[in-house]
């Protein structure tokens, strides 16, 4: 019986390690694409905005829901967009249920008096959540192109001039820009989030787009061709990441996406771990939901290459890597005992080298993305090493939380779209205390996260009697990661 259990554990452990390794190889291929693309001189047809006949009509959509702390900043910033007023419409898609509605209405009224075409659009219910709001606004949108900004984004005044020009190419359905971070250095939590997002917005988006593989509109800081949205079947609210869903449906219908790494759109990162939890849960569950919804369409598509299919499947499986990492983590301690009791399994532990190799590959890939934004000096490299292992540890600490989200997504369990609370945090002296949108209850996952912290402390201890120190660094990072998530959650009322 014990041998059978050992075989089952080793099979799951090995499969999870191999999936992580394949994911890292996909990232390495994206790095090659990224570096090659950076060296090429990119030319593309563009609208001549000096010619009034070529200036397209644009609708800016601002989907908001209970954004008391940032709505004033949002509207003031959007009002500064440099674009002919006769060719610009702004829709404030306000699903709010609190007192912010009155403040928003007053500010919109004041902006209307300046001659700005801005409308306050309210719905009777939140059906379809953000996707529903965008779809509702699209029904009456005047623009041929639809720019979308979440409430915490602050596009520069010339943002439209830098993006809408690329739609002269009739095949382009979306232009997406890179996210920036106005509060990157606020805390360890914000630095880690910025680090992970920077990797996505450089390595992944550029690496995929460079070779014509599928990328995704990131829900904000991008602009759609209205015809593309309608041709792809319009917004649907049956997943928590409606942006990824519509992106894949559009690209399966041969629409091209244009990614602009050099156009940065600043935004605010969650500063409290409860807010980061809700965002991570939505993104990871939505990724798994979209895998269920779209993977067969990608695999069976006749109009895309085998390599594009591979990267599409790996893209849709991104969030599922957390489940693989969690399984490897949990099973790493039993495997130490199996190695001790059943010598015939010694060969299986060569599979562990795949995890080490995967980590090295990711370390190299993320360095190139880090230095493209932060610089490549020796001091920056030292900072990168510290940040990479901090990020790696905390990502491990989030693996339980995110694995639950992934499992819910794969099983088809429906849940409400939970928005990420905004704070209007711009620098280290600003405080999030008293934010009324914060979750008041402690996350039930905290008990398990504390137990896992103790579990991996035990994993570090048993290395001594077993005289097996190969997994000690891994267990140390797991101990730190789950400890960070637990104590941050406890002190921040997660």
From TrEMBL:
<keyword id="KW-0472">Membrane</keyword>
<keyword id="KW-0328">Glycosyltransferase</keyword>
<keyword id="KW-0812">Transmembrane</keyword>
<dbReference type="Pfam" id="PF13641">
    <property type="entry name" value="Glyco_tranf_2_3"/>
</dbReference>
<dbReference type="GO" id="GO:0071555">
    <property type="term" value="P:cell wall organization"/>
</dbReference>
<keyword id="KW-0808">Transferase</keyword>
<feature type="transmembrane region" description="Helical">
    <location>
        <begin position="7"/>
        <end position="26"/>
    </location>
</feature>
<keyword id="KW-0333">Golgi apparatus</keyword>
<feature type="transmembrane region" description="Helical">
    <location>
        <begin position="446"/>
        <end position="464"/>
    </location>
</feature>
<protein>
    <submittedName>
        <fullName>Glycosyltransferase</fullName>
    </submittedName>
</protein>
<dbReference type="InterPro" id="IPR029044">
    <property type="entry name" value="Nucleotide-diphossugar_trans"/>
</dbReference>
<keyword id="KW-1133">Transmembrane helix</keyword>
<keyword id="KW-0961">Cell wall biogenesis/degradation</keyword>
<feature type="transmembrane region" description="Helical">
    <location>
        <begin position="345"/>
        <end position="369"/>
    </location>
</feature>
<feature type="transmembrane region" description="Helical">
    <location>
        <begin position="312"/>
        <end position="333"/>
    </location>
</feature>
<feature type="transmembrane region" description="Helical">
    <location>
        <begin position="470"/>
        <end position="487"/>
    </location>
</feature>
<dbReference type="GO" id="GO:0016757">
    <property type="term" value="F:glycosyltransferase activity"/>
</dbReference>
């Amino acid at each position: 019986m014990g041998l059978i259990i050992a075989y089952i554990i080793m099979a799951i452990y090995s499969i999870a390690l191999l999936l992580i390794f394949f994911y890292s190889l996909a990232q390495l291929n994206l790095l090659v694409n990224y570096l090659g693309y950076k060296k090429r001189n990119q030319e593309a047809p563009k609208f001549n905005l000096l010619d009034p006949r070529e200036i397209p009509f644009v609708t800016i959509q601002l989907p908001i829901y209970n954004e008391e702390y940032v709505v004033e900043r949002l509207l003031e910033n959007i009002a500064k967009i440099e674009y002919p007023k006769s060719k610009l419409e702004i829709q404030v898609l306000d699903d709010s249920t609190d007192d912010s509605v009155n403040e928003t209405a007053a500010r919109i009224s004041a902006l209307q008096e300046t001659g700005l075409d801005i409308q306050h659009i309210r719905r009777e219910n939140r059906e379809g959540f953000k996707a529903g709001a965008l779809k509702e606004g699209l029904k009456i949108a005047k623009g041929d192109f639809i720019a979308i900004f979440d409430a915490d984004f602050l596009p520069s005044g010339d943002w439209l001039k830098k993006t809408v020009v690329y739609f002269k190419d009739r095949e382009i359905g979306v232009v997406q820009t890179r996210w920036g971070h106005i509060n990157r250095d606020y805390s360890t939590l914000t630095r880690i989030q910025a680090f992970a997002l920077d990797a996505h917005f450089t390595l992944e988006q550029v690496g995929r787009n460079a070779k014509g593989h599928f990328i995704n509109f990131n829900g904000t800081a991008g602009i759609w061709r209205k015809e593309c949205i309608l041709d792809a079947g319009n917004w649907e609210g049956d997943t928590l990441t409606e942006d990824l869903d519509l992106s894949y449906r559009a690209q399966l219908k041969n629409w091209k996406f244009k990614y602009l790494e050099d156009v940065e759109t600043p935004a605010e990162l969650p500063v409290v771990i409860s807010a980061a939890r809700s965002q991570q849960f939505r993104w990871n569950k939505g990724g798994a939901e979209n895998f269920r919804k779209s993977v067969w369409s990608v695999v069976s598509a006749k109009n895309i290459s085998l390599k594009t299919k591979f990267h599409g499947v790996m893209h849709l499986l991104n969030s599922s890597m957390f489940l693989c990492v969690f399984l490897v983590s949990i099973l790493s301690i039993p495997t130490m005992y199996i190695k001790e009791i059943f010598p015939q399994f010694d060969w299986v532990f060569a599979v562990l080298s795949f995890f080490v190799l995967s980590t090295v590959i990711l370390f190299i890939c993320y360095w190139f993305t880090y230095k493209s934004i932060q610089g490549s000096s020796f001091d920056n490299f030292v900072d990168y090493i510290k940040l990479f292992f901090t990020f790696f540890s905390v990502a491990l600490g989030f693996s339980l939380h995110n694995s639950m989200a992934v499992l819910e997504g794969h099983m088809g369990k429906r849940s409400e779209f939970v928005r990420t609370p905004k704070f209007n945090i711009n620098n280290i002296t600003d405080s999030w205390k008293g934010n009324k949108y914060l979750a008041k209850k402690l996350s039930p996952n905290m008990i398990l996260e504390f137990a896992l912290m103790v579990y991996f402390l035990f994993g570090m201890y048993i290395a001594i009697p077993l005289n097996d120190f190969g997994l000690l660094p891994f267990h140390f990072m797991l101990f730190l990661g789950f400890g960070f998530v637990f104590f941050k959650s406890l002190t921040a009322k997660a």
